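Try it yourself: sequence plus S-adenosylmethionine, in.
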Amino acid sequence: MAHIPNAAGRPSWRASVLTLFPEMFPGPLGFSLVGQALQAELWSLALHQIRDFGIGRHRAVDDTPAGGGAGMVMRADVLAAAIDEARSQNPDLPLLYMSPRGAPFTQDKARALSQGPGVMLLAGRFEGIDERVIEARGITEVSIGDYVLSGGELAAMTLLDACVRLIPGVLGAEESLAHESFEGGLLEYPQYTKPREWEGRSTPDVLMSGDHKKIAEWRRGQSERITRERRPDLLRSKSDG
Ligand code: SAM
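Structure, out:
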């Protein structure tokens, strides 16, 4: 499918979300820079109500787990019908299932997705989804962290927020992205603003020196120290990669 240029002349980055709660969107994604970018059509959001593909008079989307156990599982046939409809509108988007079992979502993945045409996200509910639809529709599972949410919508919003802010033109100063946490495999250095003195604490002298080389060196040193103290795994993966 061809990219649709927006008013700014750029192709829009497309998000497509399959959910039982479309009314939760855009939610936080409607605010601030990401919300303004949605208004400006730098990205678009298509919502697909999974229940529209439910079975019978009650539009059932879930059933009891095969083999017994607590909770309900989202049906493969219902999800496949919803996915096929969503894909007919956006056949080129990678399809990800928000899942605590998935590969961890990272800044590198956000950047890679932000540079593509967009993303299609499946938000689960209940105990999750029938495994067969994952296999049959070639779905990739992605996790936003090692904890269990009650539904995939917040996870989908988290992923979308991280991607959308990387789309060119969404953030004012593109420069600010270059030094953020995880860019270059390091966490960000400490930030300060006015007033210079606050509750007996001063802004470090070097930041007031006007010497940009010294400031850059100080920030780099602080980034390395904080990363070493808090996330040594990032330094290891940097040296591995
Ligand atoms: N029974 C599942 C398990 O133990 O892996 C958890 C299901 S959870 C209650 C319901 C839905 O929330 C999932 O289908 C998934 O879409 C979403 N979810 C929960 N935790 C998540 C996480 N850490 N990352 C991404 N999605 C998550």
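One thing you can check immediately is this: Residues 212-230 form the longest helix (19 residues).
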